[in-house]
Amino acid sequence: MDSNDDIFENLMHSLDLSRDLRKARTVDFNSVSDALSFKLSRHFNPEDDMQEELEDLILEINDHYKKVVKQTIGEKPTLEEFKKELENNQDFKKTIADAKNAQDSIENLIEYITDNHLDNDAKEFASLCISTFTNINSMLLEQDVVPLIKRGIYSEDLASAIEVWKKNVLEKAADEDFWQNELSARKGILERLIGGHALFLQREFHVGTTNKAGKGSKRSDFALIDKLNDNLTLIEIKTPDTKLIGSVYRGTFPLSRELSGTISQVLNQRNELIMNYYSKRYNSETAFEVFAPKCFVIAGTLSNLGKNKEKLKAFKVQRQAVAAHVTVITFDELYHQFSTFNQI
Q1: Which CATH architecture has domain 174-342?
Q2: Which of helix, strand or coil describes residue 28?
Q3: Cα 106 to Cα 100: distance, rounded to the nearest angstrom
Q4: b/e per residue, 257-276, with b = 16+ CB within 10 A?
């Protein structure tokens, strides 16, 4: 996909979000501002047929009004039910009042246009006023409103992630594809992991060179770019049922073969990435650096160690020993972080 295709796809996505911002997720952060601008800039053009466009706006408001009433009370509420909802539901009351005020304002404007013959200068002045305040509103939205919306989306996404974890920790404990898909759909989770804001680069990232068929290179499950310094981060994901430690050896417990192998795997990926940095960077549309690539492994759960303090101690000691090169975090530790953050 070339840059023009990307621009068109992002534009269409922002237009889709403008129809219903409730669809937005953390991966849509960069589209929220454009979506709001599209949504709020839908006004009539004074230099066109103003009355016709204003009448269309009234129809839209009426459709919105009917939709709210239907969702809140039902298809055909009685007058008594309607009045009762107005008395007891402040959100409903405000929505109805806002719709009524908007409709009254449009009808007053239509009446003014009908009673006064506006020349081209008046229409041009009205058009300039609308354009000016639209641009000012866009700036104010970006400064004040968009950050609040992004925070709400982020919080909602974390809450959803926690719920998915609780429901699937046992049933999907051995399903690596499930957890890779789940985490790839939640940029905010991986951002929390690396401790900063990330530009999501891609899943199944080739760290080295490939042949014409796309083969011959090691691949990392995920590659992210830290927005603050453009440094690349590699992440390998196993499953919640991955064994963390192996059989007892001379009074202690070594890391399991699977976990040790995954640590070696991600270190080899980092080494190959550094060796092939210039060719990878040349062929990448996104700037990145590899002066200190971070490596993460998400695997297993502490709960699988039970209450055996010796096993837990052995795991933590050995995890700390490799921490300078690879950060190992378990699934339950990861989701506990999100759960704590979501309660703040």
Answers
A1: 3-Layer(aba) Sandwich (3.40)
A2: helix
A3: 10
A4: ebbeebbebbeebbebbeeb
* CA gap 188, 162 in Å, rounded: 12
Cα angle, residue 239 at apex, residues 208 and 178 outer, rounded to 5°: 85
Query: What is the number of residues in the chain?
Result: 344
Cα 333 to Cα 3, 258, 322, distances in angstroms: 39, 19, 18
With CA atoms as reference, report the closest residue to 30 among 53, 43, 54, 13. Answer: 13
**E strand intervals along 239-335:** 289-298, 327-329
Domain extents in the chain: 3-152, 174-342
- pTM for the model stands at 0.58
pLDDT in tens, the chain (344 residues): 455 555 556 666 666 666 666 666 655 656 766 777 666 666 667 777 778 888 888 888 888 888 888 888 888 888 888 888 888 888 888 888 888 888 888 888 888 888 888 888 888 888 888 778 777 777 777 776 666 666 666 666 777 788 888 899 889 999 988 988 888 777 667 776 666 555 555 555 666 555 334 444 566 677 777 777 777 888 888 999 999 998 888 888 899 999 999 999 999 888 888 887 777 666 766 677 777 788 999 999 998 888 888 999 999 999 999 999 999 999 988 888 766 655 44
State how far the Cα of 189 lies from the Cα of 112, in Å rounded to an integer. Answer: 53
- Which of these, 331, 263, 328, 326, lies nearest to 295 by C-alpha position? 326
E strand segments, the chain: 198-206, 219-226, 231-237, 289-298, 327-329
In 3D space, the residue among 332, 275, 321, 324 whose CA is nearest the CA of residue 295 turns out to be 324
The tokens for 340 are 């704590």
- With beta carbons less than 8 A apart as the criterion, state whether 263 and 276 touch: no
- Angstrom CA distances, 142 to 7, 34, 40, 59, 135, stand at 20, 9, 13, 29, 11
